[in-house]
């Protein structure tokens, strides 16, 4: 009975170790910071909001439960090499900067349509028409062109970030990180899709 219990505990620890290795392999925290910087720049958010987000993160970290702290410490002790394997995250290459500048210059034309609810953020880190009736008939082709150009740049941006890090397989994780960040940085009243694809107003 004791052997079974010990075996079960070892299996659990190995599973947790594998999870930690995967999380460290893709530097999620660094990717999130990079996404926040890029999205803030594109949307023209002020430094005050950046500081507020940092304070909220610090407060959230302080509220971490004792169990999580102990578990994290135990796993770090058991897998010291995993921390050393954490790669640097590169979100600044000529291709990335070019795409970021293109999206930033387009944002002023898109913002009125975010404000009116005509256009919103999709769950796959793109944008789409949310309310076609909010777009004047004469502007519909122009708005569709803006959406198409923006989505093309967004696709290229996520791919360029993955390529800059030498890990094209990271693109889905990078896209998911940006999908969350676009929503977090969206202004009040803007629309976005939830995980099931339904439209929600912030």
UniProtKB/TrEMBL annotation:
Assigned keywords, A-Z:
Signal
**UniProt cross-references to Pfam families, sorted A to Z:** DUF1318
Give the signal peptide range.
1-31
Q: Which domain of life is it from?
A: Bacteria
Query: This chain belongs to which protein, by name?
Result: DUF1318 domain-containing protein
